[in-house]
C-alpha cells in the first residue's frame, strides 16, 4: 500500500467568545482505496496574520509523502517535519 495524495479541508468553527477557530482536516489517500484522516486545530491562535498557507502546505505534503507506506507512521511524520505544526 502506498500514499497517493493528501487533501486539506479548512473548517472554521465559531466560538462563543473570541475569534473563529480554524482547523484543517487532512485526508490521506492510498492506492488500495483506503483513506485516513487527521486534524490540525487552532492554527492561527487567534490572529489572522498567523494563518498558514494551506494550499502550499498541501502541495508540500503531497510532494514529500507520495509513494510512502502509510503504515509507517514514524517515517511519514519525519517526512512531514517542518511543514505541519507539531508533525
Walkthrough of the structure:
This protein is of the alpha+beta class and 87 residues long. The chain has a single domain, classed as 2-Layer Sandwich (Enolase-like, domain 1). The protein has 2 helices and 3 strands. It has helices at 54-65, 73-80, and strands spanning 3-13, 21-30, 35-40. Strands 1-2-3 form a 3-stranded antiparallel β-sheet, with helices on one face. Strand 1 (3-13) and strand 2 (21-30) form a beta hairpin. The longest helix is centred in the C-terminal third of the chain and has 12 residues, at 54-65. It is elongated and about 45 Å long. The mean pLDDT is 83.
Give a quick rundown of the structure.
The chain is of the alpha+beta class. It is built from two helices and three strands, in the order βββαα. The radius of gyration is 14 Å and the shape is elongated.
Task: Note the topology.
Layout: E1 3-13, E2 21-30, E3 35-40, H1 54-65, H2 73-80
Antiparallel strand pairs: 1-2, 2-3
Sheet with most strands = 3 strands, antiparallel
Structurally, the number of domains stands at: 1
Strand order in the largest sheet:
1-2-3
Question: What is the number of E strands?
Answer: 3
Relevant CATH superfamily: Enolase-like, N-terminal domain
Which second-level CATH architecture applies?
2-Layer Sandwich
What sequence of helices (H) and strands (E) makes up the elements? EEEHH
Q: Let me know the average pLDDT.
A: 83
Amino acid at each position: 500500500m502506498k500514499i497517493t495524495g493528501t487533501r486539506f479541508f479548512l473548517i472554521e468553527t465559531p466560538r462563543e467568545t473570541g475569534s473563529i477557530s480554524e482547523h484543517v482536516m487532512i485526508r490521506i489517500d492510498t492506492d488500495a482505496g483506503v483513506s485516513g484522516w487527521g486534524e490540525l486545530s487552532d492554527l492561527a491562535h487567534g490572529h489572522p496574520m498567523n494563518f498558514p498557507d494551506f494550499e502550499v502546505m498541501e502541495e508540500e505534503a503531497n510532494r514529500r509523502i507520495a509513494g510512502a507506506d502509510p503504515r509507517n507512521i514514524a517515517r511519514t511524520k519525519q517526512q512531514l517535519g517542518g511543514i505541519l505544526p507539531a508533525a
